[in-house]
User: Fold this.
Amino acid sequence: MIAENLKNIKSELSEQTSLIAVSKTKPVFQIMEAYEAGQRDFGENKAQEMTEKWEKMPKDIRWHMIGHLQRNKVKYIAPFVHLIHAVDNLKLLKEINKQAQKHNRTVNCLLQVYIAKEETKFGLDPEEVTNLLESDEFNNLKHIRITGLMGMATFTENTAQIEKEFQFIKSFFDQLKNKYGMHILSIGMSGDYPLAIKHGSTMVRIGSAIFGERNYT
Ligand SMILES: *Cc1c(COP(=O)(O)O)cnc(C)c1O
Assistant:
């Protein structure tokens, strides 16, 4: 089933869009099914769970931290994380920089832009993104690289609303990408990825449409 789902989703993606299989809460044996089917990029939202899976699983997997990351958890994932998707403040960037330096790495990060109508707590508005990118404090951090933007649309059946939000982040991304050397726009989940692709997504983060519903109990 997992291999079949992956194949179907991949057939809907263009060359420019890569697929992150969101494996949070899923056991290693199911993730291995996706791995055997050729999938190499996986997304997790908890540092500890991601670290445990990294230890147990093949080392050519690229691990994406897609959830809100607490500063005191950065040290666990700094040795191996491939991309941190949801960075929304300078203090967190400083900690990522510090931990990356310890491991002689440069860690790639995306800035999370607030696009939803819902009162979610996370994400920057465009002005905050620009201020951050222009600040001296940010520009002194040599062990991080901001490679793009990430966004989460409102959880709604209203596709016009979702499209509006994706359009918004896409046009902001287009304003920034050349100036700041960005190439990743991480938008699209199981419920809205066709719309995200339509609006220029270069990375979709898909969980339940690959692995089935999550059970949090
Ligand atoms: C869980 C999660 C996803 C995947 O959600 P699905 O609806 O299962 O595809 C994508 N992005 C983020 C940030 C998530 O936390």
Summary: The pocket of pyridoxal-5'-phosphate is lined by residues 22, 24, 45, 66-67, 152, 189-191, 205-209 (CB under 6 Å).
